Structures
1.
Amino acid sequence: MRLPLIATILVAVVILFSAVGLALRRPAAPPPDAGPAPDFALVRSDGRPFPAAELRGRLALVYFGYTTCPDICPTELGWMTRTLRALGDTAGEVQPVFITIDPERDTPAKLGEYAALFDARLLALTGSPEQVAAAAKAFGVAYQRNVPVSAQPGFYLMDHTMTTFVLDRQGRIVLRLQSRDRTPAEAAALIRPLIGAR
Amino acid sequence: MIRPLLLGLLACLAAAADLVVEQAWSRATTAGADTGAVFCAIRNRGTEADTLTAIEGTAAATIEVHEHVDAGNGTMRMQPVAGGLAIPAGGEVVLKPRSYHVMLIGLKQGLVQGGGLDLVFVFAKAGRIPVHARINPAWAMGFDEEK
């Protein structure tokens, strides 16, 4: 009576671990249920409009942040540019994108100057507060103002999602990455197979 | 008469020498940036715990030690460390990306790569310790940039 129970548990555990192992080893091919491409209409740092469709045909790395961000954003954007470097010759197939969630302070010009500190290829996008809110919603990005208790009057920080989204050539979200989870080399290894998938 | 004074002075010097602030660095910002961050390692070689109570400097209007907390919903929040930053006896606290950092708010001027930044760290026991931070590229992850 006892033995079959233990055997059943053992079999269940083996199956569970195999399933987890398989899931982890699954190649990073675009999931068929990736869902519709997030739609947005934003503004480039040179003031020209930038619709989501302009990203189609290439992969994209998309990160939402703001230029007054003292630590997280430079950390994530630095990680993004290192990931591009890790991709080597194929990096040209991937468009890095930085979208501000603080359009009140991040003017197009300010944003462009900031992006240039990281990588000349980094495309910086802003828009009206409504356009930015719509873009963030399309990606499932959350943000809100946070006024630190002892900071100078009028100053605020933004709480925000730290995810870097990988978009395929159709603009669909196929990967969600965070620098604290993966080195640039590991991220590049996940992105490389997507570059081949046309 | 002079001896207790000398002893007192020596005790002060010893306390200051127990606290060491090393490998201070910052990240370059745009010319008109409002904020910056400084990172470093604080080592306490003494037998008593100490607290970093304030950081002074002319680089910014407000200078605070900040920490990251989970603000829920997958978002992160940065906020001042309440009551100062405790440095345990014989221990080390490292201020680094995604962790504690010195927050510069209201920068007087942008931080230029290759330049430097002078601060004074004020400890409850060890007193005032001058710290020079070097300014690394905006994408740096450590004192040695790539780390």
Note: The interface with chain A takes residues 27-37, 61-62, 64, 66, 68, 71, 73-80, 97-98, 101, 103-106, 137-141 of chain B (CB under 8 Å).
2.
Amino acid sequence: MLLAHAVALAEARSYVAALADLTRTFDASVEYERVLLQLDWMHDGEVPGLETSGLTTDRDILFAVAESAISELVTHGVDALKVELVLDMLEVARSQDAP
Amino acid sequence: MTYGDNATALRVGLAELLHHHRIQQRLGGPGLHTVPVTTTAAERADLGQQISRYRHAALAWCLQAVSAANPRINLDRTTTRSRGPAEELRYRLTKAVEASTAGLPSLEELTSTEDLAIVESWREVARAAALGEHDFGAGVGYGRLSDAECRVVMKDAAEVTRALVVLDRRYAKVPGWESLKDPTRLGRAAEIGAMFAGYETPDYRVDQRGWRPTPRFVDVPGLPGLVGVLQAQHNLFIGLDRFPNAYSLRVVLDSQRVVSYEAAQNAMSNAPSLAQEWARRTQTYTALVRATRNLGGLVGGGGEAAGQGALAATRIRRLAAPEEAQADQTLLWGQLAQLFTAVDERVAAIISHGADRRLYFQAVSLPRVTDQSNDLVKPVRQRFVPITSAVDGGLLRLVADQLRPRRLPAPAVSPRTGRSREELRAAIDHRPGSPTSPDGPQLGV
């Protein structure tokens, strides 16, 4: 894994984790955690650590950054279909995040 | 069958035997003009030898129990003065077993019902002793038991030995009967051993230990409803026998969070106390899921456990709404609670083992010294390091404080087996005609 790939993955993981922590419903939290697990599974568990401290608490911004970082993974050689599936899971999680 | 079950069966059988006097007549012999003679002397001799074999089995159980509670290796060169109460009992039991020529009963004798009630009681005693031998190799042994639990085993063995000594005197005139070696010394050693073991507070949790059949994977097509959840949860428990890698562990933790949450929601109306407990479990697993996001570790498998965990989570989410669910599911909820406890214990052991053996790693930010950069502020890098108390990020504390099931304080008396212990003690100390005997003559005031 090259540095740029690791940075994009760390960013995606961090923002998805932050979203999971800030959800208003239990189901959405579970779905965001699944996105995180799916990202790790795609990389066979060899992933950089994540850090959620210092990130914004605005869910829209967090979602946009996470979506962008996940989309960027395609440019680092990750299978495009898998990335699309993760993006779909991310959308599902967001749709569940309604009180 | 646990240690408590087998020891209870042993005590119940002996208490029953201790209520019988006039043994010859109970074996069909002469002596009572109101009861006809039904057996010949040769038949009674055969019965005497058969009972001796049953007695030998009970004696062997006593020796194994004392050895399990106090395994001093070599007592050959010791004397009565140099041996403690437990060692003296073990020594006397060893000598009694060695001197007995009756031998152990055959499998056919143990499994065939006897016509005479007294012989049948002996058969049940021997059967319980034979089954109880499995317990000493399966959790009821020195090193696995606490001191208080050892004292319970020791006291049980001493009481059973006392009962055998009392019965030995009563059966002395039965043809073919083989008396114990040094019954007086054996009886005294048993009495002192029982007293010695009863000095301090016992721990009756030993009754729950012992041999159990190995749980197996339930490999059948998905069962409907809550039973299907139990099936997947059981299989998850079996799957956790294999050490999971970090990813599989995280999937299991995530699944348990979902299962606990949904179970709490469903049990809210029928079992509110369980629902409260499971809501607490949900919080614990939520915290664990967060604490393990940066957990790494490629050693191990656990794919099967992860799959079963995900299956349990999926199935419980598809359960009917609480108001539509069958009303009488209390038993199933109770079984789910037991599985939760078992899984919690296993997961706690896995995380502790992974940390101790450095199989799991935690990503932590570590400042580092570098000579490759001229910047004044050095970048902070993340490293995966073994989980130790300094860098565990609260994971180990979470496991120790919240996940590991709390061990309840030892009950003062065993509710299930306490009665049989009291009854055997009363039967041993019973003397016809004594003032304390309920059926004996009462002293006038």
Note: Chain B touches chain A at residues 245-247, 250-251, 254, 257-258, 261, 286, 289-290, 293-294, 296-298, 363-365, 382, 384 (CB under 8 Å).
3.
Amino acid sequence: MKLLFFLTLLCSAVPGLSNAAAPGDKPSAAVNELLTQAHWLERIQQAPHQLNYQGTFVYQQGLALRTARIVHRVEAGHLYERIESLDGQPHEVVRHNHEIHFLSPTTKTVLVEPRTEREIFPGVLRAPPQTLLKYYQVRQLGTDRVAGLETDVLHLQPKDQWRYSYRLWSAREHGLLLKIQTLNEQNQVIEQTAFSEIHVGGKIDAQALKSGYNTQGWKTEQLSPLSDSAALSTYWTVMANVPGFVKISEMRRNLAGQAVTQLVFSDGLATVSVFIEPWREGKAVNETVGSQGAVNMLSRRYQDWALTTLGAVPVATLRQLSQAVQFNSGKK
Amino acid sequence: MDHSQISVLMDSEFQSVPSGNDIDALLRQLPQNADAAQTWWLFHLQGDVLRTGEASFSNEARFSQRFSKALSQEAIHFLSAHAQAQSSALTRRAAAWRRLALPAGISAAALLFVAVVVQQTHLYPTPAPVFAQVPEPYLMAHQQFSPVNPLQSAGEFQTVSVEKAAIAQ
């Protein structure tokens, strides 16, 4: 039954397959191949929702290297997680389902985000497999060992020029993602995250999920979610012009003393942010391109607004998405 | 300071000058001797016109003085007297070759550079030119949504405050 449901979804998602698997027919080789690809992704996506684990992971971008400790527990459909940075300025991220608390002992602040669309490593796949397979092809590269566990190495190759490719190391036993690399157009690794040690399974003590900081007397900032009706009243219209990228988030924030609107787009894996603020002297008039580590940036002036577009995607994608944003004076 | 000494100085034919002390003296005199400075400037103008067909600098009244002063402040390395004597003839011949070899070398290097760049352009898509630094607050605000980067800088707590949180479509 599940296979049939999956086939229907896949056939609707992937062009050219709608005639390949009529109900009752034996799945063709192409469908089988697609099912295998979907299976890989589904395992990676489901593992963090089914497994307890704790370990240390490393994030590398260019010469920057940062490590963190993660404790992750799933119990009766609830997800609890605690991430503690091990270098640089100390901070913690404590999560319960869709509510995230950011704790900073430096500023003695607890930032509470009650409803988030964020995904945190190793739960990197934001969209279901049938959506991802529209834009990426999954290929098994071989096997490898990461943090002492046997893994299958997969390559998510983009089907167009709008996104980068990824290598994923998925634990053979349960599918948990143990390592991910982002590769640019030249097939160079531009950022990666990997577990250096991990223990999967077993009981996780509730104490291990509690923050190590005594937050008594700390400032708490509650981030109010934008209601659906408020979201619809935005000044900004986004024309869909890059296949797969949809707006997943919109917020107004204060960046370096300036009120800025942030729109976040995702294709289920890659994310792009468009920052919109009133144009002022000193901001780029002509299109300006920059990059830092894996993240590319494109700035341009649009009417009386400055648009800054960021993401670990090709510059052409940033340009397209930047041009998709249009001011809608009829709304408020 | 006569014109022949200025000519020797300009052509870098130091070996025809008896000693380094004399060169030093010439350089010291140049900023203080209006006639010598004017001659220095005229010789350079003639040289430019002969080489390129046009003057590369304007007849600015104090140019020669400033140029001479800057030149006099530069460190100069001298050959030993023995080496000067030995290399004198060779240097003259080499100088003639250098006049041809330098532009030829530059041209060859430029051609090689262009060839390599053209070849690489064919092999790989041209990377985006880097013109600007990514502003840190924007980068940190974006990385909150990056699935590959699981860590967020503590700095964002100081610079970012969200007024309205995310909404999924």
Note: Chain B touches chain A through 42 residues (CB under 8 Å).
